[in-house]
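Field: COMPLEX_INPUT
Field: COMPONENT_COUNT = two
Field: RESIDUE_TOTAL = 491
Field: MODE = joint
Values follow.
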Amino acid sequence: MTKDLNFTKALSRLEEIVQKLESLDLDLEESVAFLAEGLTLHKKCQDQLKHAQSKIDKLLSVKGGDLK
Amino acid sequence: MKNIAGKTVYTVSEVNALARQTLENLSFWVEGEISSFKGLNNHYRYVYFDLKDPQTGYKLPCILEPDIYKSLDFELSQGSKVLALGSLTLWEKEAKFQMYLVKIEAFGEGFLLAELERLKRKLSKKGYFDSSIRRKLPSYPTNIAVITSTVSDAWQDFKKHTIDMFGVFKVALFDVVVQGEKSASQIVKAIKAADKMNFDAIVLIRGGGSIEDLASFNDEQLADAIFAAKTCIVVGVGHEKDVTIAQLVADVAASTPTDAAKIISADFIRLEEKLSETLIKIRWLINNKINSYSQQLDLFFQKLSYFIKTYQEIPKLLNHLQKSLIHQQRITMSKHFQKLSIFKTQFNNFWNLIYQQNLNNLKSLKDKFTLLSPTNILKRGYSIAFSQEGQIIKDSSGVDIGSNLKVKLAKGQLLSKVLAKEL
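Field: COMPLEX_OUTPUT
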């Protein structure tokens, strides 16, 4: 499930997971499952952000080449 | 002057005087090199030197007032090329012909400048410098004719600030001589040719130089060509202090070739600046977004970490619970044991009491019982009669006369025979 999400969806799923974990009415198995999913989502989101950042840096470092 | 034999005869002095008067009516600007220069000398009334024609070597003796000499704004010396204004005169005593100078200017410049001023006045009258009739440089000009010497720095400067910066320019280069006799006519020809080719602008450029070097850019025919052209003409000549007629007539005057290039590419520079501002803005916005996401992620991670920590502490908690359970259990057990022990003591006490009581009761019963026992009754003198079958006889009616009876006494027994019976 986690694999197919785009960044925004992954982020909101992560938020949902955190809320669920905070709600305190989960049993241990559920909590651990949510925690594992949450950590995977966090890593995925962070990687996507880093990737986006470096891509943007690369794109925007080309100076005024547009008229050439 | 006298009349001798019908002839008008002059003395030498009179001739020389007449010659002097005649000569003194002639005044000129003369171009020449200073020669035989002796400098200022307090012993002489004037400063003496010759003006020499450098091509023929002919000389013209000159005299100059020391005051004029002192007020010159350049250094007059042997070999200086000057323009001198003066009138001819004659030293009557020796009939030596001289020029009496009233003004001296450094070579060429004065003359050329005077020419230039004259031409400027003329062109100004013709309206050549009228700014209201100038053609405007089109926006974003791309199709450009450049008239210059292809081997010049001017071209390199122009190129550097136009086609080297922006690929949009299509430049047609008209290679001309920018100095010397043929220069002006080549430039005029190039302007006329370029003007027919629908360029966005014609750019005429040249590096700096002396007024002589720049003569072709002060040419009247060039001014005519620039004025007549239909295309917008940008002229950038020399360093900033040089202003030529070509620049004055031009639709757009640039101070240098680089300046001309900047004028041509100004729209593109502005466009690029705008693009770069936009890029900066985009970068700022994206960075903001990424930062905000990053912070959100950090917050989530912090929360997740909190849960991880919580779960990591579960075994510890369990261990702790286990210990306290064991402890609690021990306490409970020990309480029970204590209670049990109390119960046991109490029970023992009770038991002893009950036992003692019962024992006493028993004893009293035994006593009672002993008192009531047949033996004790026998002791009081009673006896018990048993039948032969061993039955206690309580009623005489069942006993046959003559039957044997056993009579038990407190001490011993008697075997007896029933003799009679009474009811």
